[in-house]
Amino acid sequence: MAKETKDYSKYFDFSDAKVLSEDENGKTIRIRGREIHIISEPNHRQSKKRRREDIQVLYDTEIPAELREIGKGKHYIVYTYGCQMNEHDSETIKGMLEQMGYMPTEDRKQADIILLNTCAIRENAEDKVFGELGHLKHLKKEKPDMLLGVCGCMSQEENVVNRIMRKHGFVDLVFGTHNVHRLPHLIKEALFSKEMVVEVWSKEGDIIENLPKKREGLRAWVNIMYGCDKFCTYCIVPVTRGKERSRRPEDVIAEVRELARQGFKEITLLGQNVNAYGKDFTDISYGFGDLMDDIRKIDIPRVRFTTSHPRDFDDHLVEVLGKGGNLVEHIHLPVQSGSNEILKIMGRKYTRETYLELVRKIKAAIPDVVLTTDIIVGFPGETEEQFEETLALVNEVGFDSAYTFIYSPREGTPAAVMEDNVPMEAKSRRLQRLNRAIEEHSRKSHEQMRGQIVEVLVEGESKNNASVLAGRTRTNKLVHFEGGKELIGSFVKVRITDAMTWYIKGEIVKEENEAHALTH
Q1: Can you list the alpha helix ranges (DSSP code H) found in 183-248?
Q2: pLDDT tens digits for 150-202?
Q3: How far apart are CA 203 and CA 178, in angstroms?
Q4: Which residues does residue 331 pair with via DSSP β-bridges, in sequence order?
Q5: Second label for 243, Cα 20 to 30 Å away, from 339, 348, 392, 490?
């Protein structure tokens, strides 16, 4: 039975809304006793009219002095849902809040501002956020002066913003992905006007450099580009994140150099589609391969990147990654399906054959590479034979792990209007078979590592046992081994002794580590 689609129409009925005022700064409306100041709201039609407007790069992004006192003596919590891009946005949000004087807390009762940085990729992510808002409603009643905000990808969707305005009048602040840098001004507006403040830009803004970031741990995210121009039929990202726009190479390189100076051990370059980096430059010919070649020369031990699209993975990039050094031997390469017919309906713009050819080139250039992927099963119209093609591709490539999903429609995407005609039990069965195949490859690859000595970046104590440390290899494999907590933050050599499905066990190689004690 096809899943019933949500009825969003009830969130669009604003017949009981009263417009109180309207001017060049937006409009103020009243719904159910709640005044809402709409500076700008999401508009899908507008966000799809994408012209290559001149994107400006703004460097002068200091928080004004009068906003640096607002949070003095107050506390904040930021809850993050979704991908690394959201994690990275949250680092910026926390950085700005701390520059405004706010301090972090984990105690909701102590918090003066709580922000939910949301994800729109799957419906269950959305349901989670609305569930969380339900819990926070009680807290808001007890503490009416607390500011409660929703930001991130969900805020870029019209139906979500309308639903918040109609049903969640206790929310104070709604802003999107293109205007994170406006947060200090929006907080001021929400605090002083006592209205719900909505500012969501449908068109992506400029590239904002030099925003503060609050980074924790040994690893840092570095955004190299924003947006996506691929328009896969199941994906809402081009609507929520806008068109592709790359940061200038000198700005990315300066940020990576600074992270190296601060002692970070690993960076991950981020983009909705990192290997399209530079394609929007009109004044220079400089792509992702060039950027990786330049970052390779910076003294930071490990460099990763995510997420890449097979269509933009060119030979130059393969050649640069083959040089090794601090460029690690792990590539996340989403395939989504092994069937050409399904790939075509998904709008992926490559074939099974071109994907396998790319894998062959990568394996030739980086013999010990570990490949991971994303796969969707049960896409509209997927037959048993087409699923078998996906399974065959998985077995041919031998992925070490994969993010696997049952297809679920996202409102606002082309696939959402296709007939979702694969029965749920068939989707579940396919997912189980796929996961079993991937588990087998994962365990096999771990078995082959027995006896090998690998370099592990020690991240912390294992969740279940304080005498066991956990860390990751260059290929991003999780390793558990016994050791003292003074090793956290350093690289150690570990001999692999045992293979599990999702992690490996090892023991420290004492003689190899004596010269290797790098402090964090």
Answers
A1: 183-193, 237-241
A2: 999 888 888 899 999 989 999 999 999 888 999 999 999 999 988 999 998 87
A3: 8
A4: 371
A5: 339
**Annotated binding-site residue numbers for [4Fe-4S] cluster:** 83, 119, 153, 228, 232, 235
Contact 430, 460 (CB under 8 A): no
Strand order in the sheet with 219-223: 219-223, 266-270, 302-306
Residue 265 corresponds to which tokens in the numbers above?
Answer: 């051990």
Could you write out the three-class secondary structure of 161-184? HHHHHHHCCCCCEEECCCCHHHHH
Cα(390)–Cα(407) distance, integer angstroms = 14
* Type of residue at 285: S
CB 170 within 8 A of CB 140: yes
Sort residue 231 into left (φ over 0), alpha (ψ -120 to 50) or beta: left
Give the Å distances, CA to CA, from 70 to 74, 83, 100, 189: 8, 30, 6, 11
CB 435 within 8 A of CB 404: yes
Are 145 and 182 a contacting pair, CB within 8 Å?
no
CA torsion sign, 508 to 509 to 511 to 517? negative
Annotated binding site: 83, 119, 153, 228, 232, 235
- Give, as one character, the DSSP assignment of residue 241: H
Q: Please report where in the chains the tokens 């500012």 appear, as a residue.
A: 199
DSSP assignment of 142-163 equals H-TTSEEEEEEGGGGSHHHHHH
Q: What is the pLDDT of residue 44?
A: 65
Q: What is the pTM of this model?
A: 0.85
How far apart (Å, rounded) are the C-alpha atoms in residues 231 and 190?
Answer: 35
Tokens encoding 184: 């200090």
End-to-end CA distance of the chain: 55
Whether the pLDDT of residue 512 is over 70: the answer is no
Alpha carbon distance 349, 296 (integer Å): 30
Structure tokens at 452: 């090998």
Tokens read off for 427: 């989707």
DSSP letter for each residue of 43-103: -HHHHH--------EE---PPPGGGSSTTTT-EEEEEE-SSHHHHHHHHHHHHHHHHTT-E
